[in-house]
């Protein structure tokens, strides 16, 4: 992998990123990386990790150093808590453990492997109650959005892999708002606390197992399958309304909710409802299409330089183009 510095990070920071990524690339794991999975990897599409492994020593695999920094901010939060834990066994038996490794062995097509994850925080009370919390750095705007399905799955997988499902389980996503201090000075209605913990549903164990099995099958049987539209769009399925006289120019790409927050159209039904509100002439030529934004390919995917789809589309990381 070749790491560039096209966006002028200070040299010592760039050098530090290069040294870190060379000594501990993000596809490297302390467990058996040829057979085992990390939870986050398993939840992802297979193609990015397949390409990263295949091209890890190639100069065609180019990532700019600036695209590692957001990942380091998240890692910094995790590192801050690492090693902190309290185990007050008296008087109520409460305990909290931070950065707790969870894993479980599986057999697939007669081959053994394990799935590993790191739960950010686990709180025990008494001997039967467990609360698992996963930290996410986020922007305050997410306060109005439902908890992302992938986060719900992640918490449920950690509870399952940690073998906590025989206990009374609860799961939370803890949003840590990066823009909290800046935004609270002018935006009324934003969270009073920089941390917002939102409870997620506990899924039936069978559903979690089925999900894991499907993902394992997907990664093992079709490691190079092209990413789906939803995967290319950061896991979001969104819709846009087009006018046939102006194809590919979305007339209504977003709408504002009751709080005045601009939102993407996340269901076909919502798009259909918005379409009814168009002037009669426009309504006659309006049609709905699932978004083909490819936001992940354009803005975040680290294997963009070696991905056949991104190459075909001519996607290149640039702060000015998108
Ligand atoms: S660039 Fe897009 S299509 Fe290619 S691996 Fe990344 S997300 Fe998938």
Number of domains: 3
Task: Tell me the number of helical segments per DSSP (H or I, 4 or more residues long).
Answer: 12
Radius of gyration: 22 Å
Helix content: 25-40%
Question: Tell me, what's the shape?
Answer: globular
The string of secondary-structure elements, in order, is: EHEHHEHEEEEHEHEHHEEEEHHEHH
User: What small molecules does the structure contain?
Assistant: iron/sulfur cluster
Structural class: alpha+beta
Distance between the termini: 24 Å
Main β-sheet, in a few words?
7 strands, mixed
Percent of sequence in beta strands = 25-35%
Low-confidence stretches: none
Q: How many distinct beta strands?
A: 14
How confident overall, as mean pLDDT? 83
Note down, in words, how this protein is organized.
This protein is an alpha+beta fold and 322 residues long. It has 3 domains: 96 residues, no CATH class; 146 residues, no CATH class; 53 residues, no CATH class. 32% of the residues lie in helices and 28% in strands. The strands form 4 sheets. Strands 2, 4, 5, 6, 7, 8 and 9 form a 7-stranded mixed beta sheet that branches. A 3-stranded antiparallel beta sheet has the order 11-10-14. The chain is globular and about 65 Å long. The structure holds iron/sulfur cluster. The site of iron/sulfur cluster has 13 residues, from α3, α11 and α12.
